[in-house]
Design a protein that fits this description.
The complex is a heterodimer. Helices cover about 45% and strands about 15% of the residues of chain A. Chain A is of the alpha+beta class. In chain A, about 40% of the residues are buried. Chain B is built from six helices and 14 strands. Chain B is elongated and about 105 Å long. The chains are: A alpha+beta, B alpha+beta. At the A-B interface, α5, α6 and α7 of A face α2, α3, β4 and β5 of B.
Chain lengths: ~675, ~325
């Protein structure tokens, strides 16, 4: 590949990374993605169909007018419009004649896209895109500057890449230092939070649960919330149910629930508060995309919700709604709240007559085979609890789990129970609830999440952990029943994919904590960690002792200094003076330095020591004869000299001549 | 102002001059506007990712400064001036660049001079230890001596956002000879300031056969001495040939005229002198301000006359 082609390839890939930084937000329209990908593909083949550029410039201008007209009529967000403009401009410039000016324009438009991405997305993928863009843009721009700077001879690409890599390292370190140290003082005039990223909100909570939907959610690996549990269960994979919503009315196709929303309150109590409650600090991430709060089964208290904006956090109120459902008062991208749950303790709250009636209600058009099936499956069981457990086991054993559903059918429950005999958690939960009702046991369907993966002391719950199960009223208590086969209750990702996803999510959390949510108070904390603490003791009124962090910082500085010294020494390896010093050290160790410690007159006359003589001669030429050392030549000469001297005895010290005979 | 005072003034200005000059390119200006925009966005919104992007942008400016400094710091430069540049005719300015250590990229070299500064030589790569000649085509609009004080080495490496320049002080003088014009068709009258004066046709100094030897008189051209016979006889003898003698012409210049008119006269005289010399005449030059070039022939003499004409009207620049 020619250096010109390589340079343009780097430029186009940098633009692609910048576009990706924007596109991962999921807010860029698909037609823009399609156009950009097409332009990128054409540019990477080396074709420049817009070499003339006039017509395309006019088309671009028209597109921009249309875009901003859409902004004026509030059909398009201003930032998204700016991002689309930048991507169209980049695509048009990529397909133009590749001059130095065009390259500059592509880079600048790409920078606009990166800035747009920073506004639209808060995902860890943005960091990856930003890093890739920075690397590729720096390298391609440097190569471009050299290529258009004048007549040859042109250096090889590797020669230019070396200083550019140094520049890149400086830029990265500088960016990090700036990010950490620049005071976070914001005017908050136009604060805007990153969205839910690619795919939008994914929990799938809705006012109803309709059978026959696809099971795509089950394979979605995105983390939708994370929770810190106290006392810490300590297990890697949490076998727990997170309750979201309950549905008690079934019309044969869809579940729904009744209940009017209550007044907004800071804290919602759902049951008696006792001493052995499990405390959870739950962080709903932007991908959660729902107002329904979740908590470990059985939730007792939910409260202290805070909605996190770009630069500040604000307390938000909660609304009790429906059947023990708790909702946020308004939509929010990022909310934290506390919940207290009573584990392994069914609710003892007695349902009133109306609730009980709803939980026993069967659809009017219920397939006549279902009550018979309920009888068959519960045959031999005595008592409501035994019947419920037997039905649960029968469904687990007799029906298969699948996410490949045929789509909408007239009677999805009958289709599941008698035709396909396979379905996902919603089918299992619905079937169990209806079979229980057929046996006159009050039951309802609960939707929420099952499971949780441990990462950094917290539990991460993915969109794929979404689950549905059943609560039955048995002997005055609520009994949780889950007919879904146990291996299919949590997210589908397992094995290497699951491990990689877990690592990625752990990184994502660190990214959110340490970068996206980095604030002035974090800067204060950081400054305090590096403060020299002053303590007064009786014998030493004021003694200044460095904190451990300061010691670590000094240590890091020391190591950096050492590395710099080593790198500097390596860089000086091509220097003639350095070669002379190295030869001098080597010969001194071997006792072969010349008179006065000089290389001149060094006793290296043996035939085996020709490489040493060559090294000395070459040093003189390079130092005084203006014939510089080539790349790596000093190292080669030193290596040869070392090999030649290996095993050679030190010369005996010269003795004054003595008369050999006497007169 | 004397040269010494000028030198002192230059030294004073140099003391206050920044060691490097920095100029933004069009791309650099747009980049800075973008930096400003992103910074404003970061401050307005408090978006940390915008702070991160801004940090990267500003660090790239810093990295650009460090890498460009590495390119310029150790470059050694020597000026190679053209021998006979003519006014209004393009000529080559050349500089010899050398870098003892490291390597430099995207260099451009120019004189720090209001007239010649527009001629810029470019070099993509200066490897370590090699001497590389950089050339640029320059044109001087007028004749006369030009004092060159420094050579400016610039680079746009690494990102093309800024042009960083370093001025290397190298004193030098370039004498621009009068421009080329067609010689006037007829020699003007001797009385005019532009004229020529056929001062002498004496002597049989042509290029024909030997006519006689005779003693050399005072004031006669020593080049006509027959050295062997003079040595034999112990007295200086000169050769006389029987061919027609070449004319000996002294051109006269009135250099008290205003400078632009003087330029025109000098160019015409230069053209005439070159024509006459090409025809074999001995040509000399005298001016009202005291310039005097004895009549002579040949390329070297032609150059002497042109140099004298180039200096006419510039008394402070020496001869």
């Amino acid at each position: 590949m020619s250096s010109e082609r390589f340079r343009l390839l780097l430029r186009d890939l940098a633009a692609a990374a910048a576009f990706a930084a924007m596109a991962i937000s999921g807010q860029v329209p698909l037609w823009t993605v399609g156009l950009f990908v097409l332009a990128l593909a054409v540019a990477m083949t080396g074709r420049r169909p817009l070499a003339d550029g006039r017509l395309s410039a006019v088309a671009l201008l028209l597109a921009v007018i249309v875009l901003y007209a859409a902004v004026m009529v509030e059909q398009l967000d201003l930032v998204v419009a700016a991002c689309i403009t930048a991507s169209l401009l980049t695509a048009q410039r990529m397909l133009s004649l590749p001059t130095g000016r065009t390259t500059d324009q592509v880079q600048l438009a790409s920078l606009l896209m990166i800035a747009g991405g920073a506004v639209l997305s808060a995902d860890l993928l943005f960091a990856l895109c930003l890093f890739t863009y920075a690397v590729l843009a720096v390298l391609s721009q440097g190569l471009s500057v050299v290529a258009v700077s004048g007549p040859g001879p042109f250096p090889s690409t590797a020669r230019v890449l070396r200083p550019l890599a140094a520049g890149l390292a400086i830029a990265m370190a500088g960016a990090l230092a700036f990010f950490v140290l620049f005071p976070r003082l914001s005017w908050n005039v136009a604060a805007r939070r990153g969205g839910a990223s690619l795919g939008g909100g994914t929990t799938g909570f809705a006012d109803g649960l309709r059978l026959g939907g696809s099971g795509l959610l089950k394979s979605n690996p995105r983390v939708v919330f994370r929770a810190r549990i106290d006392p810490d269960p300590g297990t890697e994979d949490l076998d727990a149910y997170w309750v979201g919503r309950r549905f008690d009315t079934f019309d044969g196709v869809q579940w729904s629930s009744r209940g009017r929303p209550g007044s907004p309150v800071r804290q919602v109590s759902l049951g008696p508060v006792e001493s052995d409650l499990v405390r959870q600090e739950i962080d709903l991430l932007p991908a959660y995309g729902s107002r329904t709060l979740v908590a470990l089964d059985t939730p007792v208290v939910l409260g202290d919700a805070e909605s996190h904006q770009a630069t500040f956090s604000v307390r938000t109120e909660l609304i009790p709604s429906g059947d023990r459902e708790v909702r946020l008062i308004g939509p929010s991208e990022h909310v934290t709240y506390r919940a207290f749950s009573a584990l392994d303790r069914g609710s003892s709250r007695q349902a009133d007559a109306g609730e009980r009636a709803r939980r026993l209600q069967l659809p009017k058009n219920l397939d006549g085979r279902i009550p018979a099936l309920a009888g068959t499956l519960s045959e031999g069981a005595v008592g409501d609890r035994a019947i419920a457990r037997q039905l649960e086991r029968a469904l687990q054993a007799g029906y298969a789990y699948t996410l490949e559903l045929p789509g909408r059918v007239k009677d999805p429950l009958a289709d599941f129970l008698f035709d396909r005999r396979a379905g996902h958690c919603e089918d299992f939960a619905t079937a169990l609830a209806v079979l229980l009702r057929a046996k006159q046991i009050p039951a309802r369907v609960v939707v929420g999440f099952h499971g949780g993966e441990r990462a950094a002391g917290e539990y991460l719950v993915r969109a794929g952990d979404a689950h549905a199960w059943v609560e039955a009223e048995v002997d005055g208590h609520t009994l949780r029943l889950d007919a879904t086969p146990p291996q299919h209750r949590s997210a589908a990702g397992t094995g290497l994919t699951g491990w990689l996803l877990a690592r990625w999510e752990a990184l994502q959390i660190r990214w959110l904590d340490r970068v996206v949510e980095y604030s002035f108070s974090d800067q204060n904390r950081l400054a305090q960690r590096f403060r020299w603490s002053t303590s007064a003791t009786p014998d030493r009124p004021t003694s200044r002792t460095p904190s451990a962090s300061a010691a670590v910082a000094l240590g890091v500085l020391g190591i950096a200094f050492l590395i710099a010294a080593l790198v500097g020494r390596r860089a000086a390896a091509g220097d003639a003076a350095e070669l002379g010093r190295s030869l001098q050290r080597l010969l001194r160790r071997r006792g072969r330095l010349g008179p006065g410690g000089w290389l001149d007159g060094a006793p290296v006359d043996e035939a085996e020591l020709l490489p040493v003589r060559e090294g000395i001669a070459r040093y003189r030429e390079a130092r005084f004869g203006r014939r510089p050392l080539g790349p790596g030549e000093a190292r080669r000469l030193m290596r040869q000299a070392r090999q030649a001297l290996r095993g050679m005895p030190s010369p005996s010290p010269a003795r004054p001549e003595r008369p050999t005979s006497r007169a | 102002m004397s040269r010494r005072t000028e030198r002192l003034l230059r030294g004073w200005r140099r003391f206050w001059r920044p060691p490097r000059r920095l100029r933004t390119t069009p791309a650099g200006r747009t980049y800075l506007v973008l930096c400003f925009g992103v910074g404003l966005g970061a401050l307005n919104t408090g978006n940390n990712l915008l702070y991160l992007v801004l940090g990267l942008q500003l660090s790239i400016v810093v990295a650009s400064g460090i890498l460009s400094e590495r390119c310029l710091r150790r470059v050694e430069v020597r000026r190679l001036l053209p021998a006979a540049p003519r006014a209004r005719s393009p000529f080559h300015l050349a500089w010899l660049l050398r870098l003892p250590k490291g390597q430099s990229f995207a260099l451009s070299v120019a004189e720090v001079h209001p007239v010649l500064g527009t001629a810029v030589g470019h070099l993509a790569w200066l490897p370590s230890g090699e001497e590389v000649t950089v050339r640029a085509v320059a044109t001087a609009p007028r004749r006369g001596p030009l004092h060159l004080g420094a050579v400016r080495i610039s680079t746009t490496f690494p990102f093309g956002l800024f042009v960083k320049s370093r001025d290397v002080d190298i004193e030098g003088d370039l004498l621009v000879l009068p421009g080329r014009v067609p010689p006037p068709p007829e020699p003007p009258a001797p009385s005019s300031g532009l004229g020529l004066e056929q001062r002498s046709l004496r002597g049989l100094d042509g290029g024909g056969d030997l006519a006689q030897l005779r003693e050399l008189r005072d004031g006669e051209d020593a080049r006509r001495i027959h050295w062997r016979k003079s040595a034999q006889l112990g007295t200086l003898l000169r050769v006389e040939r029987d061919a027609q003698p070449q004319p000996r012409i002294v051109l006269h210049l009135d250099d008290r005229a205003p400078s632009e008119a003087l330029d025109g006269r000098c160019e015409e005289l230069a053209a005439r002198a070159e024509l006459l010399l090409a025809r074999g005449a001995e040509v000399g030059l005298e001016s009202t301000a005291g310039i005097s070039v004895k009549p002579g022939a040949g390329a070297f003499h032609s150059h002497a006359i042109l140099r004298a004409l180039a200096r006419a009207g510039h008394p402070g620049d020496g001869g």
